[in-house]
Amino acid sequence: xxxxxYIVEAIRLAVTKLPxxxxxxxxxxxxxxxxxxxxxxxxxxxxxxELGKDYSLPMCQDTGTLTFFVEAGIDNPHLKELKEVLINxxxxxxxxxxxxxxxxxxxxxxxxGDNTGRFVPIIHWELxxxxxxxxxxxxxxGGSENCSALxxxxxxxxxxxxxxxxxxxxxxxxxxxxxxxxxxxxxxxxADFALKxxxxxxxxxxxxxxxxxxxxxxxxxxxxxxxxxxxxxxxLGGKITALDVKIEYAHRHPASFxxxxxxQCWANxxxxxxxxxxxxxxxxx
Length: 285
What we know:
By secondary structure, the chain is α+β, with helices and mostly antiparallel strands. The chain folds into two domains: 3-14 and 59-141 and 268-284, CATH 3.30.1330; 143-264, CATH 3.30.1330. It is 39% helix and 23% strand. It contains eight helices and nine strands. It has helices at residues 3-16, 20-32, 36-55, 79-96, 142-145, 158-173, 191-201, 213-227; strands at residues 65-73, 122-128, 133-140, 149-153, 181-189, 242-252, 257-264, 271-275, 281-284. The strands form two sheets. Strands 2-1-3-8-9 form a five-stranded mixed β-sheet. Strand 8 (271-275) and strand 9 form a beta hairpin. The radius of gyration is 19 Å and the shape is globular. InterPro entries: Class-I_Fumarase/Tartrate_DH, Fe-S_hydro-lyase_TtdA-typ_cat.
């Protein structure tokens, strides 16, 4: 198999099989729910996940915007070809899996038909020491992305302001992002970087708390407050509105307090790829 073939298979894995951490979280949510309508929604979600896995078909009709997070070892000889490989793999995956074409020109409203276009697929690059390349395949659905938001808080509002912004915004979103959701929150940096941190926070496994105890405590507090809203699965009421909350942070300018919020739906799709210097490839979830 060529490198491009492996990327196609990683995309297939991401859109047809949900990672175990998310499946287990959904099962726990089903056990906790008492509202029969909420339980029915979760039951349908779990059945959909099984069908996708059994038949190797996308678990959701919105197969998302393909996003790749790349940690690139600067000594890996495959780095120079990687961008072209990711773009070509996206085109092939659209036809072969298949994926819904989700790349629309903002000027003409024409769909490219193959999930590629200007700056799409989205590729985040980080150069690191060494000779390994790690890629996280992250298809991001449009419905949940529409509930993402940025707040430029007054620094005096602090972390209480962060909590207020997140809870009030999720309350307004209601069932639009197909809950139960996972919330990625980025605090600090600049406006653009806060949103990037928020999306990157979603890559962490569900249930894994931040290594900074203060941030870990804030994640738990927000998870409890969001679930207390009672929005529930698919917005039809219930105990579980969010499966988890993930926060990442950076130092900020003294005059600014940016908070980025990226909402992920229950279809928390991802796959991981590692490419060694000699061309060996490992794919996992």
